[in-house]
Amino acid sequence: MLVVNVYMREKCGLCEDAIQVLDFLSRKLPLDVQLINIEKDDDLHEKYQLVIPVIEACGKEIAYGIVSTVDLEQRLRECLNQQM
Questions:
Q1: Strands 2-8 and 54-57, how do they pair?
Q2: How many C-alpha atoms does 76 have within 13 Å on its Cβ side?
Q3: Suppose 15 and one of 8, 27, 54, 79 were both cysteines; which one would form an S-S bond, judging by CB atoms 3.0 to 4.6 Å apart?
Q4: Rounded CA gap, 63 and 66, in Å?
Q5: According to the model, what pLDDT value does residue 83 have?
């Protein structure tokens, strides 16, 4: 199972869209999606406030802002292949 961190905040339309994309992809891929609210951590808020949502997997940021389902699926599959 691939752990996927989503750096987001509440009432963020792009964040909600990204979460919906990940929910869809988690039906096809073994994903453990962790939602991390940047407003609860000053360092994360400072780092990500202008680029959320940020999706992290395989120890790196793989998508941010407007998330493409096709691109994100490809990057997640690459991460899963690296784990094998």
A1: antiparallel
A2: 27
A3: 8
A4: 8
A5: 83
For residues 55 and 6, the answer to whether their CB atoms sit within 8 Å is yes
Across the chain, which distance is largest between two alpha carbons, in Å? 37
Q: What is the pLDDT of residue 39?
A: 97
Q: What is the token pair recorded at 25?
A: 């992809």
Q: Which residue has the tokens 């202008």?
A: 50
Q: What's the distance, Cα to Cα, between the start and end of the chain in Å?
A: 11
pLDDT tens for 35-56 read: 999 999 999 999 999 999 999 9
Q: At what angle do helices 13-25 and 69-83 cross, to 10 degrees?
A: 50
Q: Looking at residue 53, what DSSP letter applies?
A: -
